[in-house]
Specification:
This protein is an alpha/beta fold and about 180 residues long. The chain is built from 5 helices and 9 strands.
Length: about 180
């Protein structure tokens, strides 16, 4: 399966994605909407892409002007494809990858904070306590985007406020801002 980088420096380039049993890559329509909502925030941003899968969110961020991206992905197959995608775009120097669970990575994170955090956990296990901990890694005025299934209630995260919520059929995006 191939995904397309939508816009920016790598716009139109394709990246690989494993079949849907391992990850649930965000479709072009939802990614396009997400990036048009927050597009102006990427210039020189430090981005954290958790539950990264193929890396489509972080790689799109780089394409649109982010300074650097940290990827956290536990699954080995997804991690291998993520590495191939990074190499195919030639952005190794702007990327750090961690092959571990997000909760474990948070425990090891040494005082690093981010302008933008993407949390796209497996829909069958949202790990909301882990997602809530990610909110503590935002810089002041930083933005976190959570992808979750359905049109359910927006999960609360202490210390940050929901500033937007969008539904796209079977998927929803919640936007949180650290004040």
């Amino acid at each position: 399966m191939n995904l397309r980088i939508i816009a920016g420096k790598f716009g139109g380039r394709t990246i690989q994605a494993p079949d849907g049993r391992i990850t649930h890559p965000m479709g072009d329509r939802i990614r396009g909407s997400l990036f048009s909502i927050i597009g102006s925030e990427f210039e020189n941003a430090e981005v954290l892409d958790t539950f990264a899968g193929t890396g489509s969110l972080g790689l799109e961020s780089l394409s649109r002007g982010a300074k650097s991206v940290v990827f956290v992905e536990r699954d080995r197959v997804a991690g291998r494809i993520l590495t191939e995608n990074i190499q195919s775009l030639g952005v190794d120097d702007k990327i750090t990858t961690y092959s571990m669970g997000v909760s474990t990575w948070i425990d090891k994170n040494q005082g690093n904070f981010y302008d933008i955090i993407f949390a796209d956990p497996p829909y069958n296990n949202l790990q909301l306590s882990t997602v809530a901990r990610l909110g503590g890694l935002l810089k002041p005025n930083g933005l976190m985007v959570l992808s979750y299934p359905g049109k359910g209630e927006v999960p609360p995260v202490n210390g940050i406020v929901v500033v937007d919520n969008r539904s796209y059929g079977t998927a929803s995006l919640a936007f949180y801002r650290k004040k």
